[in-house]
Amino acid sequence: YYAGGKFDNNDNASATPDDGAKGAGIHPIWMANFTEFLKAEAAYTLGTAGDPKAFLENGIRKSIARVIAFPGQVGVAVPAARVPTAALINDYVTIVLNKYDAADAEGKLNIIMKEWYLALWGNGLDAYNNYRRTGKPNDMQPTISSSPDAFIRTFWYPAVHANLNKSGSQKADLTQKTFWDKNPDPLK
Q: Which pTM was predicted?
């Protein structure tokens, strides 16, 4: 999915450039399911119009539908046993929505952001920005390093700005927050 390579059927076989969709994948800027998750987050955190739970469900279903449709759009056959049935999809959605109903305020936002994180497969930039903005999902695997560096909150200014702009200066470090990052320090 996304790259348009060989379908991973757990067969432990090497891939070649001629396998699968031959790299005819996509690099989406924005997908319909992202909009649903953004609306869920906004409705939940900002009180915008709409039901966050309904937006969450729409996001999950649109994401799954997109992944299931993708192989056919790039000419790749997927074994039927690897395609989830409508019943399995409904079971998954029901589990997530039941957890959402049972969660406290922080837990509800965590569920929205975790499902969005899962739907962002292949899109690390939005996952990074979402995490900086919300600090969620907060149940990701911790770093393997016993003494990790600080979480990067913003990146260096480009050299042309820092070196050639006499009114500009480089940041002291990468832990400086952007204006919308209201999360506590340290963000892990």
A: 0.82
The span from the CA of 19 to the CA of 6, in Å, is: 5
- What is the Cα 35 distance to its own chain's centre? 12
CB contact at 8 A, 121 and 141: no
Nearest-angstrom CA–CA distance, 58 and 112: 11
Report the amino acid identity of residue 174. Answer: L
C-alpha atoms less than 13 angstroms from C-alpha of 87 in its C-beta half-sphere = 0
Q: How far apart are the first and last CA of the chain?
A: 29
Binning the chain into helix, strand and coil, the percentages to the nearest 5 are 45, 0, 55
For 40-80, how does the pLDDT look when each residue is reduced to its tens digit (9 = 90+)?
A: 999 999 999 999 999 999 999 999 999 999 888 888 888 89
- Evaluate whether 7 touches 71 at the Cβ level (below 8 Å): yes
Residues 6+ apart with CB under 8 A from 64: 84, 89, 92
Which of 71, 99, 58, 57 lies closest to 1, judged by CA? 71
